[in-house]
Amino acid sequence: MFLGRITRSLHAQPRTAKNTDMTLELLTDTEQLQIVDGNNLVLERLFRGVEASTGIRPLLREIAACRQPPIIVFDGPHARRRRLEIMPGYKAGRPVKDTYTDSILPSLALVRELLPFTPAVVVCVSGWEADDVVATLARRSAAQGQRVRVVSNDKDFAQLADHPLIEVTAEVSGVPAAQVHAYKTAVGDTSDNVKGIKGFGEKTWAKCDSAALTQFLEQYEGWVPSTGLPRELGLPLAVQDWWRAYPETVQACWKVTALWDVPADDLLGSVKSGSHRPDIIDTILNQYML
What confidence tens digit (pLDDT) does each residue in 119-159 have? Predict the structure, then answer.
């Protein structure tokens, strides 16, 4: 079983204890299973107004110091394909190449090159975004009674905190975890170029019955536009008119903002357990004069 393989790899690693004081941090002295959004961690730790070269060593030392080595997840090849089939504009507009990405990508590649020489368990599943893999591992672990900590500033993960055994380092202010998915569907998500429902902004969310809206969206596939939207949702007429005219767009927003479950067959073979070799890390970083 995939989760069992991960657990065995964690317990096989050496354990030490040290902590650092960073905005997005790994807890080194915790029994929680820490599941990490790899790209987000690297961007946060290496590019918050400091040179990447000054942050790589502390980050790797922190990973090695965790009592229970973290699971670090990255996007797999062709990760966006499934969502692009539903919403062709998904994540469109993100910079492909500029000064910022020119500095990020080599550092990200270097961290990924070095992770096998830390105790971390690295997961990269072809055809799947890291968000879905993180969510799948978190949900399955929690279902087996394991306390989980999801490490990321990505607010998409806030919806996972609806489970009592899952702690998430990101939140959507003022929105209960159980309603985060509905919130992102309705209001949209600019970071992923998800437009949401036209005319449905923060003020509309605050005034509508968000619990009723969440329940309605969860049962949305059976809705027939000609029946109209339930009055108890408390939506403005302009929003209702647009929704009835473009029901497929709302459904697409609901689907792409969900955290999907990754099949076990796809997860198998995508796990690489590291072995702590600080000597190799030093050799490689010294080559880069870091």
Answer: 999 999 999 999 999 999 999 999 999 999 999 999 999 99
Cβ neighbours for 83, distance < 8 A, ≥ 6 positions apart: 90, 91, 129, 255, 256
Query: What is the CA angle 61-64-66, rounded to 5?
Result: 115
pTM for this one?
0.88
Work out the angle at residue 58's Cα, subtended by the Cα atoms of residues 277 and 110, and round it to the nearest 5 degrees: 65
Helix, strand or coil for residue 185? helix
Give the chain's length: 290
Tokens 């927003």, residue? 253
Residue whose tokens read 């997961």: 123
Q: Could you read off the pLDDT of 178-199 as tens digits, one per residue? A: 999 999 999 999 999 999 999 9
Cα gap 45→43, rounded to integer Å: 6
The residue among 156, 96, 115 whose CA lies nearest residue 273 is 115
pLDDT value at 51 more than 60: no
**Residue 257 — pLDDT band, cuts 50, 70, 90?**
very high
Judge whether 91 and 80 are in contact, CB under 8 Å: yes
Q: Let me know: does 67 contact 29? Beta carbons within 8 Å.
A: yes
Question: Domains (ranges, CATH) in the chain?
Answer: 2-173+259-280 (3.40.50.1010), 177-256 (1.10.150)
